[in-house]
Structures are given as structure tokens and as C-alpha cells.
Task: structure prediction
Amino acid sequence: MFFLKGISSSSGIAIAKAYRLVEPDLSFEKKTIEDVGMEVERFQAALSTSKTELEAIREKANAELGADKAAVFEAHLLVLSDPELLSPIEDKIKTEQVNAEQALKEVADMCITMFEQMNNEYMKERASDIRDVTKRVLSHLLGVQMVNPSMISEETIIVAEDLTPSDTAQLNRQFVKGFTTNIGGRTSHSAIMARSMEIPAVVGTKTATEEIQNGDMIIVDGLKGEVHVNPTSEMIAQYEKEQVLFAEQQAEWAKLVNEKTVSADGHQVELAANIGTPKDLEGVVNNGGEAIGLYRTEFLYMGRTELPSEDEQFESYKAVLEGMNGKPVVVRTLDIGGDKELPYLDLPKEMNPFLGFRAIRLCLEEENLFRTQLRALLRASFYGNLKVMFPMIATLDEFREAKAILEEEKQKLVSEGIQVSDHIELGIMVEIPSTAVMAGQFAKEVDFFSIGTNDLIQYTMAADRMNERVSYLYQPYSPAILQLVKMVIDAAHKEGKWAGMCGEMAGDETAIPLLLGLGLDEFSMSATSILKARSQILRLSKKAMEGLAEKVLQMSTTSEVIEAVEEATKK
Result:
């Protein structure tokens, strides 16, 4: 029995067996084969097993994720039936008397290189399919189990280096009870997804994949940021009691589900939710969300082999707008780049992708992609209270260009006789320090601001939020960050506009009193944080928090700010 310390990124307690989501070791040695006939049979057996496995995955994906996600596995099955790939492998085994692993690798590598060099998007996608299928066949030749999160069928806790958005999209909420990772922080995508899935998570343990084995019984304590490995029966019993206590606390918060969010002295604010797909709506409604403050549309584009169509996007946006029954829905236009890639776009590799060709920069250059999304949003606007937000805006010219394109598409739709709402607010995500500094000028032209603190903090502090070695500089309560937040809120209010926050700071227990005091109008967070935040705000005095905010803005360090908040909010 031992435990690992990490970062609590999603509250709750999970107790289950470990499932290591780690790439298997597929290394092998080249060998000379005496019985080539038997070696060919061994290769064919690995092919057959791979086909059976992929057919099962395809059916499961089709049933649970839809035909578009299942299409990836259909492509993989086609590769496994392609004589232009398979025949040369068998020929190589027979003529060169090499083991099947070596023949498979040599032929597959040649095909992958050939396809990658073609100036054709379909062929480049085929290279990726061959690479994935080769790994699967090789794993069966070596007798090594491939990981596949979509096929988990018993209660487990995922153990991984990190979880990509596509990994988390495959997780079955029925069986995945929690997860722990080596890297990451509260604002990493794996942490954000854990909160949206309402499962406990501890990230940044550094060594989880090295020290935890498949099948180990583990406890993920998302309240304290601890992972207990092979705990005693007494510890399991104690944690089961704590699970009950946490459930009781959640039941108390649940009583506030239909309440307004009003401070102790009568000031009302809006608590909204960040979502990634229409499936997240249930969590928003169940947790008393008063709006959608951030709909991350990039998940519509991920985990597939081609761009989503206008109609497909329209149906997703319409579902969310209708599901919110007239409550505000802020949709962020495509924010791809940084650690979110779309292989089928074939974008060039960049030295620093977080500061590179991403978000609105990509959309303004890939104009057809952008116009398709805007048309889908405009068509959906008729079905609810839509607000459109452009991400990563650095200059007024970018906002004006994006707005002009939207207006052009709106006029086209109207001329086609398609109904479009006349009341669509247009806003920007404030995540670049220069934009916060220029908020006064932006506020004259935008309808609202939403502060994206996840990026604003890392850009202001020049500290990559995914880099463990500089994570100490990721400081949401830094007086520098608070000064920028104040600039944005004050600029919005001066022009009669509203200011929200959709970064993870909005749901942070220490930050909430400060943000209330600074005058934030809308707090958007993971749905599971809403009721806890409402409970906290009900107990706070807006006037007292204004005094606190004024005081901390004069402070020099983060530690001073935290101490002041703790002192001001003591029960």
C-alpha cells in the first residue's frame, strides 16, 4: 500500500481497479524463419483477430457515439482487407524468410511514407489508418494487449500519462469512475473533461503510470488530491463513508438547483456552464445552470476524418439552444490549435503552437470552414438565445473582420428565406493580455466580454500551464491577473456591456469572492461546480467583497491575496 500526491482537478471519491491507458511496448527483433508457411499462418491469425476486434469496436462506436465516429474503424477494416498491403507482407515472409513482425513493419512503413508524401488529403488520412492498424496487428503478433478505452466494460479508474480530448470522448461514463494522470493541472483538458463528466480526478502525480499496475485497487481522492494504491480494507471502508458524506453534501447543494444566484446583500449574478457537446446539457440542467457560458465547438470537429457538415453542426447547435429553453447560450467559434489538433486539416507543425496559427487566426484564413460554422450558428439562432463569441482575438481588426463575415452570411441566409434571429450578441474571449489592456476600445464595439483565464494567466505570466516545472507561476490570484480582470470588467460596464468569465478561475472557491467584488456579471464553469459556487455566493456580501477586492489590488504577492480572502470569508 502507498499513495501518490497530485492536484485535485475534479471533486469526489472513486474506488475501483486500475486500467492503464498506456501505449504498449511493441518492440521486437528481426529473425530468420525456417517454417515460412507457419509464419504466414501466424500473420493471418493476427489479421483475423484484429478484424474481429475492430468489428466489435465499430459496432460499439456506432451504437454509442454515432456513425461518424464509427467510420474511423470502418476505414481500419478496409486496410485489413487490402491485398496491396497484405500480399507484399506475405511475399516478404516467404522470399526473405523474415518474421511476420519485420515483414509487416517494412511494408507498412513504405506505404505510410508513400501516402504521406502525396498531395492529397484522402491519401494522407490513409497513412494514419495504416499506422493504427499496423500497431493493432503487431500487438497480436507479439501477444501484447492494445488499450482501447471505448471497450471498457467494468468499473475502472483510468491511469494515464495524460488524456487527450479524443481519449476522453471514448470513455464510457457508466464504467469509468475516475482517473489519474502523470501530468496536467486544474486547467488541463483532461481535468476539464473530468469535471464535465462528473467523475473524480487527480492529475499531475508524475509517476502514476510507473507505479500503478493493471488491476490494482486504487482510491482517487479528488477532494485532497491523493491516489491510494492497494489500500487496506479499513481504508476502503473509511473512504466509502467519505463517499456517503460527499453525496450528502451534494444533496444539500442540490436543494439550490432552482434558486437564483443572489449574494447575501441582494446582488444577483449569473452562474453558467462550460460544455463540449449537446450530451453535457443534462448536467447543466441538473446542476441549475442559468446559461451556457461556453460551448466549446471544437469537439464537433475532433475524433473524425473530415470536417462536420453545415447541417450536422446546425443540429448540434439547435439541440443546445432548444435544450436551454430560452436561457443564454454563448457559443465559441472553432478554437483549434495549441494542444487541440485536427489531423485532416494538415496544418504545419509550429515551434510554439499556443502562440501560433490557431482559433480566430485559423478561421479568418480558412474562410470556407469559418463561413460553414457561422451559417450553421445563424440558422440555429432562431431556436434560442444565441450569443456568438470569437476566441483568441488580439486586435480590433480581427473582430471587425469576423463580424463582417458573419453579417455577410446572415444576409445570404435572409435572402434565401431562412429565418435568423435579430438579437444575436457578438462578443470576444479575452485571453490575450494586450486585449485586456485595450478593453476600453473593444468595449465600444463588442456586445460582451468573456475572460478566458486558462490562457490569460499563462500568457501574462509567460508560464506554460502544462509544464510542471513552471506550474508555480500559474497563479490565478496574482495581483497582476486581478488587475487585468478589473480592467476588462470596468471597461465593459463603462459602455453598458456585460462581462463574464469562462476560464476555470470562475468556479474557484478562492477566486469567487474576489470576482464578486470586482463586479463580474457571469461566472461560467464546469456544471458540477455550479451548485457549490451558488451556495458560496449566497453567503457572501457583495459590498464586503468590493472592499476585499479593493484591498487585494494593492497587494504584491499571491500568498498575500489568498490570506486576505481566507480572513475575509472565515465563518
